[in-house]
Amino acid sequence: MVLVLNGVLQDDCPMDTASLFMQHPIYRDYAQQLLNIPTKSVGPVGLLYVGQREMAAAAPHDKNINIIGTDDATTCIIVVVRHSGSGAVALAHFDGTGVDEAVCTMVARVQELALGYPEGRIELQLIGGYRDPQSYGEEVFYNIMQSFHKHHLEIDLTQACVGELNTVLRGDVNCPIVYGVGVNIKTGEIFPAAFPERGPDRELRDARIFMGAQNVLDIYDAALGMLRIGPFNYDPLRGADLWLAQSDEFLLQHLSSSPDVEPPHFAMHMRATIRFIQENQFPAITVFRDNRPRYYRRDEATGFWSLVRY
Q1: What does the record list as coiled-coil region(s) (predicted)?
Q2: Which end of the chain is more exposed for a tag (fewer CB within 10 A), N or C?
Q3: CA proximity to 21, closest of 99, 114, 131
């Protein structure tokens, strides 16, 4: 009983987005403020990109990161947890898998980064999960709200741009308004965002999701200031050639939870992921040698992530 909605401690968790907005219409105003901000295209310099079924946390004094963000969220929900006193922030891209454990990890990471700073509240922001035909977004919303409601700390929901508030009708198709967000970790500003470059190791990270990983991967070691991927493994993909022989429309219809509203690059990214899996059937051997993670350090000259060679 520790979820705080519009400043009021809640005994029960809202069952769906409609209930939340009916009982607390102030969230409509908060969502509109976000939607009024123009979408920014964010380049790779100073960016920590978080993919689907990933999370990361950082503090304002981190010299390696300016923006932490994610995009391509349709039925997924982007979750931002922030400590108001220190400015420490965690961001995750949830699709409904591994939510309970990841919520605990997000809050723990923010608390660790907030140690020694002024007291403050743990604030929660949710963006994404448009009103899709199968109500996948509602399921993800419910899972997230339940996970935070079960947490022992008071957590203050300050943004819920989800469901109908993140939906626009185009023709006869419901579409997301915001597909992605960025958070300026220095100022705490959150804004609609798109990320043309999603590296490093984009295909490797997408392969983990494609092959059914059940956990949310924490991809940043704030103590080291390094991006960390893996190690993980998956079984070989049967029929990779068959998948690659299909049309873009076939891939869209069979590999997306929301084929009517995916970004134009969806099929191209799927093909790149499947080819990577085909070429790396046992990543524990071909990618993560000696069972080591792949670490990336920010190059001070270029601002890009560069692989650390051992």
Answers
A1: none
A2: C
A3: 131
Query: Cα(140)–Cα(162) distance, rounded to whole angstroms?
Result: 10
Which residues 6+ apart lie within 8 Å of 247 measured at CB? none
- Reported as a single tens digit per residue, the pLDDT across 36-66 is 999 999 999 999 999 999 999 999 999 999 9
Q: Set out the domains of the chain in order of their start, with CATH numbers.
A: 1-305 (3.30.1330.200)
Q: Give pLDDT tens digits for 10-44.
A: 778 888 999 999 999 999 999 999 999 999 999 99
Q: Which residues contact 53 (CB under 8 A, 6 or more apart)?
A: 93, 94, 95, 97, 98, 208, 209, 213, 215, 216, 217
Q: Which two tokens stand for residue 80?
A: 């931002």
Q: How far apart are CA 277 and CA 234, in angstroms?
A: 9
Measured in residues, the chain has a length of: 310
